[in-house]
Fold this protein.
Amino acid sequence: MLQKKNKGMVIASIGSIPLMMTLGNSMLIPILPEMESSLDLSQLQVSLTITVFSIAAAIFIPIVGYLSDRFSRKIIIIPSLILFGGGALLAGLGAAVFSHSYVWIIIGRILQGIGAAGTAPIAMALIGDLFRSGERSRVLGIFEASNGLGKVLSPILGSLLALIVWYSVFFAFPVISLLSALLVWIFVKEKSNRQMPPPFRKYVKGLLSVFKHEGRWLFTIYIAGGTCLFTLFGILFYLSDVLEKNYHIDGVLKGLILAIPLLVMVVTSYITGSRIGQNLEKMKRLSVIGLTLMTVSFASLVMFEKLVLFLIVLALSSVGAGLVLPCVNSFITGAVGKERRGFVSSLYGSVRFLGVALGPPVFTWLMGWSTTGMFLSIAAFTFLVGLAVLLLVHVDGKDGGKKRKSRITYKYM
């Protein structure tokens, strides 16, 4: 168990990882329209700067997840943070100095994505290793709140840095990632009695057994978490574009407006994580409620054109996401034992990154088709995901999950 005097700094160090990783995508949102005009890009090309980052992360996450189970979390996290910063530096130099700027930005973003693969998903597994039971849910709530805080700060920071020059945001990433790497290196101490995982064949056999018995609810929970990120980044991409083109709002004011729904999600995530404890029934109930709120919000947005009313209704979807994400985190980190937690958490990380990757291009396509159709389609999708959680995630027993007698089997170690 962690000593109380060190626990705060350990939580802060691990919390810096999702905070930093969120900046990797969200800080770019305010500068995308200026990037489009400066480099004479199409809207699809601009959206690919988000997409390639997330696809690269999604591809490499399962690999680094296995490596973190095989060796240690810190051995993966710290070099990954350094690679993330190096990729950003390459993208910044590509935009500022090199010819064919867009190509260099894409290469840099791919390297950033590979670095991202070994950070936040592995940090979630690390929380599962270091904390137990109800405290684990609380720390995971802080983890998700830190993720959300990055989303709140990033539009503002991105807008402020863009006042210098639009590509200056790329040069901020190396500084932030280096600071996070130093915090993890100094304050996070993994247990010295860490057991070596089984040989690869036995490891894979164990994973297949997990997904054979737990796969239906586990993949449903994966999709629920990915849906929150998919809709969040899609709607931010849409809102960033609309604020400039329809309302002629840009700069810091645009960043502040983009931060409003994100702030709502941060507060909700923190409260949810601190309240759910070990109660599986409560986690399921809050997940269904959250997805229902998202459905109602997206379906209602078609009726509102005034910006203030639009943001109020949009905030309802942020409340929903803030209810869902901490519950999903707690479900997943407790689904397997420590020796396979890195892979299972990382696979969820892949789904999250795929959600982020798909958001901007899918919303771009839907915007070109019909704004009303876009909102109604997304509402239908969140409704179906909520229905899947309701029907496929079973929590048995009358103890509210407190004794862990459920179709969802937690293996805390």
Residues 4-187+197-392 form a domain with the Growth Hormone; Chain: A; fold (CATH 1.20.1250.20).
